[in-house]
Design brief:
By secondary structure, the chain is an alpha/beta fold. 37% of the residues lie in helices and 23% in strands. Helix 3 packs antiparallel against helix 5 (130-157), helix 4 crosses helix 5 (130-157) and helix 10 (299-311) crosses helix 11 (331-343). The radius of gyration is 25 Å and the shape is globular.
Length: 539
């Protein structure tokens, strides 16, 4: 597509830098073993998707640099996490639940105080607009708070002793070991913490590998991690994943892999582990979530939900609507309203008022998207909206493609960007065939008013995807709801409650129910001699 314009409103200036209180950050320290360790090796340069003019040429804004750890340093980070785990005997894994909660509460206080710093870095690093960046921060804070409440509830449920068939037992959840947590760039805070916090609060020690984009925004949080948790409980792993992740996975000493990203990468990482049966995997992967617009759909609502569902954060969400099927009797009207609403969206820099479409952080992303568009148009699709095209550098206005068919790449591939493919259908069996044969099975949105027709779709769809949304977009929240997927879309379930179970295992202490053993248990309980075998619960 052709570049539309390169006007100054899309350029980073010194005035913007002053307003945001921004200056480049060279990060030479990384957290490992409870210490901020100095790194004197190579650095990874970090650039913004936003550009500034230097000597008459538009160039990405230099944001700073982070350590590019090598294999030896990666193994040292893993060693620090292992030392804190200490074969399950470390301070953190055997700590009382209430004391682990206190540590997380202390971290939350420090976290909330850093809101503006983190939000600014999020805008600069990944191009997320201010409203969405603030929402992500606040949602993460709420997630941590909800996790604390969920742990208290879980602890209360486990505080009683079980009596069954002459056996006296207490069943609680215990940690798994060393967890490698790897978050995505599109939600570098919320998605990362959705694995990191439950892994920690359940007693695991963590090696945290930030995404390639969205690294410096974590720098303000490092000191909060260092002061809130015992040494070695939280450790940061920077560098090329093909080097540092490979090094630690090949040791076989990672017990849990929590990864949110592509299914291809997840497979490659899992294959590195020499003892796959001892590796617990928690994966949030690809998706190609469809929307289905039925003949009786209320179009005002359907259009609004589809615009937001397809293009929030430029479509860079696993839960985004990535293909829309419209009944042939409504497709012309739908496209007219849909494209008009999209063309009315405001494009701009992340801190600009009401900016909805913002720069894309991935290098080469627009070239990838252009290739998808070229493939579709060569095979019969047309760009339906007037403003589609590259605006400036990494800023691309959305393109709506119609009619899209199975011969086109965009029909099958996850675009993860501002392209919206639209197909027409005659019978719902055509859409069910698409969903059934897809490699992905996360969510679907269905828009219609007929109870009979909706019910007829719900029953087969729930056996193909894990969330069927009626007259609303696909989404993750609320975070207390299960977030998972079928096929290549996920492994394990993430939500506030489910994540606590994913990062732990049911463990029990049992004895034959004799007077002597009851007295033994009673003594341990009354004197509070064990952190695990305890009838004390949190309120």
């Amino acid at each position: 597509m052709e570049k539309i314009s390169g006007e100054n409103q899309y350029i980073f200036t010194d005035a913007v830098a002053e307003t945001l209180n921004f200056s480049p950050l060279e990060q030479r320290m990384y957290l490992s073993g409870g210490e901020l360790k100095q790194w004197n090796g190579s650095q990874q340069q970090v650039y913004s998707p936003v550009c500034r003019i230097e000597n008459g040429i538009e160039k990405p804004v230099f944001l700073g640099s982070v350590p590019q750890l090598d294999e030896a340093a990666a193994l040292d980070v893993l060693h620090d996490a292992q030392q804190a785990w200490d074969l399950g005997r470390g301070e953190w894994p055997v700590m009382r639940v209430r004391d682990r909660i206190l540590a997380v509460e202390n971290f939350l206080k420090s976290f909330n105080a850093l809101r503006e710093q983190v939000v600014v870095w999020m805008m600069l690093e990944i191009g997320k607009n201010r409203a969405d960046a603030e929402f992500e921060f606040d949602r993460t804070s709420e997630y941590i708070s909800d996790t604390i409440d969920a742990v208290k509830k879980l602890d209360r449920e486990c505080s009683n002793l079980e009596h069954e068939s002459g056996i006296l037992a207490q069943i609680r959840r215990g940690p798994l070991g060393v967890a490698l947590c790897m978050g995505p760039y599109n939600y570098p805070l919320n998605e990362s913490f959705a694995t990191l916090i439950p892994a920690l609060i359940m007693g695991n020690t963590v090696v945290f590998k930030p995404a390639r984009y969205g690294i410096l925004l974590l720098e303000p949080l490092i000191e909060a991690f260092r002061t809130s948790f015992p040494k070695g409980v939280v450790n940061f792993l920077y560098g090329d994943g093909k080097v540092v992740v490979k090094a630690i996975m090949e040791t076989g000493k990672v017990d849990v892999l929590a990864f949110i990203g592509s299914s291809k990468t997840a497979i490659e990482i899992k294959k590195l582990h020499p003892r796959p049966n001892r590796l617990r995997s928690v994966l949030g992967l690809d998706a190609k979530n469809p929307a289905i617009i039925l003949p009786d759909a209320e179009l005002d609502s359907a259009v609004s939900e589809c615009v937001n569902g397809a293009l929030a954060f430029n479509g860079q969400r696993c839960t985004a609507l990535k293909i829309i099927f419209v009944h042939e009797t409504r497709v012309e009207e739908f496209l007219q309203r849909f494209t008009a609403k999209i063309d009315a969206l405001k494009a701009g820099l992340p801190w600009a008022k009401d900016a909805y479409i913002t720069p894309l952080p991935e290098t080469g992303k627009i070239e990838f998207l252009d290739a998808l568009i070229d493939d579709a148009t060569e095979k019969g699709a047309s760009i339906q909206n007037k403003r589609a095209g590259k605006i400036a550098n990494n800023l691309m206005f959305p393109a709506v493609l119609y009619p899209v068919n199975a011969a086109m790449r965009i029909y099958h591939e996850e675009q993860f960007g501002p392209i919206v493919p639209v197909c027409s259908f005659t019978h719902t069996d055509e859409v069910l065939h698409y969903i059934t044969n897809s490699n992905y099975g996360q969510q679907v949105s269905v828009f219609g008013q007929s109870p009979e027709q909706l019910a007829a779709l719900i029953d087969p769809l729930v056996n193909q995807v894990c969330r069927v949304n009626i007259n609303t977009k696909c989404q993750r929240g609320p975070d207390v709801f299960p977030f998972n997927g079928r096929k290549d879309s996920a492994e394990g379930t993430l939500s506030v409650g489910d994540a606590l179970r994913v990062f732990s295992i049911r463990t029990m202490v049992a004895t034959r129910e004799t007077p002597e053993n009851r007295a033994l248990f009673s003594h341990i309980l009354e004197e509070r001699m064990s952190h695990f075998l305890s009838d004390h619960y949190l309120i």
